[in-house]
Write a sequence for this structure.
């Protein structure tokens, strides 16, 4: 059967440009909906003596015409009959020449033929609603597109393949079983049913709580893979902070001068350190200053240090401690001591300090510094070498709520704590079940779906 003859069932058809706007060899426009092939039939005319019928998953060359019958472009069309398509609906992908104007004209012709412009993320949202993927997989689509390093790409690929979704569905099944047992005891208290409200049930709740905690421990790793680790280069003026930034980047980004106070604002660049994206922040030297502009730069330095994932505290190792005039501040979180200018010799004050000795001018110590940064960032969570299950902020919020519910259920089932009414325990377990279900989309939460897919790019 010629797919172009397939009739619409009246459902809304969406269309969007799926490739970045700009000049290139090819642009891709995507149609999806039960009326996709009807829209295509009005605009696409296969080339050949008698025309070539379109068939599922076969590319066909033809002309695309507007509503006036004028040729817009020569295009290549591939169709995918639902439900064996990305969205689960009838889908057509039109490859046209990659100019901005011609791409826009093709889009306008399809809109005039009856399609509607797609909203951000609407293709992936339809894929979720049609059961082609769960919410964690849908979110992984954008993670895959925005991945900056090999590790981030691998983590997104594993999530898209359903690794996180499978773990959450297993957890949800366990919680559902627990809820059923407690509610069975509530409904049939006189029946000879072992509700396992004693030690066995408590052990199961504890085990599931540990699974939740294990997933929560990957939150920082997930944030770093998606956004990059914020690594702040901090120290007094003229100790080599900007030189260190340039050294790690591999090119001169910051101005380097022997004059103290050259850097008065923060500079930020991203590098890839063994698969981990690092957002390197060079800051103004912290010291006592009467200069109003320099004081603003120092205040920005303090804010950067407060929000850092890792602080690289740089000192001049050839000078005595305190010689650089650093105004100390509380360094929260992880930090590394960097003893710069090792080529000038090390002052005895630093002999007992466990720092990384480097020389930016002589290119000494870069491997040791990279090892220290990597080890510091990988110190928590499941590490970076195995399965990269890394939750995002939405998952973290849901799992924290589930964790609180499971902790309350544990306390309620623990005889040492006096126990709780079965109805209360059932309510807490069901709340945990709902919060886990929100992550994979197993609950009715329309506002959650709207928030997730609104962050997608058009055409996904």
């Amino acid at each position: 059967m010629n797919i172009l003859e397939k009739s619409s069932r009246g459902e809304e058809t969406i269309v969007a440009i799926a490739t970045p706007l700009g000049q290139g060899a090819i642009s891709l426009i995507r149609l999806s909906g039960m009326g996709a092939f009807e829209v295509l039939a009005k605009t696409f005319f296969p080339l050949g003596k008698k025309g070539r019928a379109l068939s599922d998953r076969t590319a066909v060359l033809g002309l695309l015409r507007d509503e006036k019958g004028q040729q817009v472009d020569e295009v290549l069309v591939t169709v995918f009959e639902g439900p064996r398509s990305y969205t689960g609906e009838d889908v057509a992908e039109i490859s046209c020449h990659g100019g901005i104007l011609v791409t826009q004209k093709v889009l306008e012709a399809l809109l005039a033929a009856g399609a509607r412009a797609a909203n951000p993320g609407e293709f992936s949202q339809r894929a979720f609603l049609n059961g082609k993927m769960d919410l964690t997989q849908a979110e992984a689509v954008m993670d895959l597109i925005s991945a900056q390093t090999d590790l981030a790409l691998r983590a997104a690929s594993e999530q898209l393949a359903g690794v996180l979704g499978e773990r959450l569905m297993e957890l949800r099944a366990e919680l559902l079983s627990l809820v059923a047992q407690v509610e069975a005891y509530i409904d049939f208290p006189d029946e000879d049913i072992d509700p396992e409200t004693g030690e066995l049930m408590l052990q199961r709740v504890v085990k599931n709580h540990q699974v939740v905690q294990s997933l929560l421990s990957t939150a920082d790793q997930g944030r770093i893979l998606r956004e990059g680790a914020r690594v702040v280069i901090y120290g007094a003026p003229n100790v080599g902070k900007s030189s260190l930034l340039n050294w790690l980047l591999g090119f001169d980004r910051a101005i380097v001068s022997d004059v103290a106070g050259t850097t008065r604002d923060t500079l930020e660049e991203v590098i890839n350190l063994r698969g981990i994206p690092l957002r390197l922040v060079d800051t103004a030297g912290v010291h006592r200053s009467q200069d109003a502009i320099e004081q603003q730069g120092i205040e920005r330095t303090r804010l950067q240090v407060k929000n850092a994932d890792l602080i690289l505290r740089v000192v001049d190792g050839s000078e005595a401690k305190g010689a650089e005039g650093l105004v100390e501040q509380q360094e929260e979180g992880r930090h590394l001591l960097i003893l710069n200018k090792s080529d000038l010799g090390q002052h005895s004050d630093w002999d007992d300090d466990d720092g990384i000795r480097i020389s930016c001018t002589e290119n000494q110590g870069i491997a040791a510094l990279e090892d220290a940064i990597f080890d510091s960032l990988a110190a928590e969570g499941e590490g970076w070498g195995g399965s990269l299950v890394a939750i995002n902020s939405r998952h973290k919020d849901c799992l924290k709520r589930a964790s609180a519910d499971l902790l309350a259920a544990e306390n309620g089932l623990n005889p040492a704590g006096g126990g709780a009414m079965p109805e209360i325990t059932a309510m807490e377990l069901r709340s945990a079940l709902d919060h886990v279900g929100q992550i994979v989309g197993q609950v009715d939460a329309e506002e959650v779906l709207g928030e997730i897919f609104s962050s997608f790019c058009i055409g996904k």
